[in-house]
Specification:
Blueprint: H1 9-17, H2 25-28, E1 31-33, E2 45-47, H3 54-69, E3 72-77, E4 88-91, E5 94-100, E6 109-114, E7 118-124, H4 131-141, H5 150-176
Parallel strand pairs: 2-7, 3-5
Antiparallel strand pairs: 1-2, 3-6, 4-5, 6-7
């Protein structure tokens, strides 16, 4: 469901040259993309930045996307999720213009434009999201058959997390009352099964999420 991004030595060298720290941007990037050639969907993947500092986060993202999608020349965001909006962000070899739409753009979406190639839409996973929820969101946003908007996926993730927490709380009560000694495992109380739109499995702490760059 999730495309695997392999960095060539040339790209790795380019990424290393764009940072003054000892950590390569590629190792800091948490990105999940729909498979190449997949059917058109509302979202082309998900990006999990480490902060809401667009000037700091955008160069790391474009360093990987430029070789894949063509030079990113412009992005747009919803200002409700980004406290500071620079008009331009210097990235490797060029400048990316930043625009914003309040009512017209999903607050959890990043729109990227390439002058020669086209446009893409990425779900932006909030930086403070817990890893289990983030993994689910990145897998769902990379589903080539997905029909949900970025905000719809955020709402669904919260619903699934609440259901999972409720289920664990019920199990804890069951165990504290001696239910762990029951012979029939089917007797253990559980919340009704939930399945997210598009067939993505619900959140579960014991199930691994998609392979994420930088995890």
């Amino acid at each position: 469901m999730t495309a695997t991004i392999s960095l060539s030595p040339i790209l790795e060298d380019r990424l290393s040259s764009t940072t003054s720290t000892s950590t390569s941007p590629s190792s800091s990037l948490r990105l999940s993309l729909a498979p190449v050639g997949a059917a058109p969907a509302l979202l082309d993947g998900a990006w999990w930045p480490r902060s809401r500092d667009l000037a700091a986060e955008l160069p790391i993202l474009t360093a990987v996307l430029d070789p894949l999608w063509g030079r990113i020349t412009r992005v747009t965001v919803n200002p409700t999720q980004w406290p500071v909006l620079p008009r331009k962000v210097p990235v490797a070899g060029h400048v990316v213009k930043v625009g914003w739409f309040l009512a017209e753009q999903d607050p959890h979406e990043l729109l990227l434009l390439s002058y020669r190639t086209g446009r893409w839409n990425l779900l932006v996973v909030p930086p403070w999201t817990d890893p289990v929820m983030a993994a689910w969101l990145m897998a769902a946003a990379s589903d080539p058959w997905g029909t949900s908007t970025a905000s719809r996926l955020m709402e669904e993730a919260v619903r699934l997390r609440t259901a999972s927490e409720t289920d664990r709380a019920r199990e804890a009560v069951w165990d504290s009352e001696g239910g762990h000694g029951a012979r029939d495992p089917a007797a253990r109380p559980r919340s009704p099964g939930v399945m997210a739109e598009g067939g993505v499995e619900p959140l579960h702490p014991s199930r691994p999420g998609p392979a994420l760059m930088g995890m």
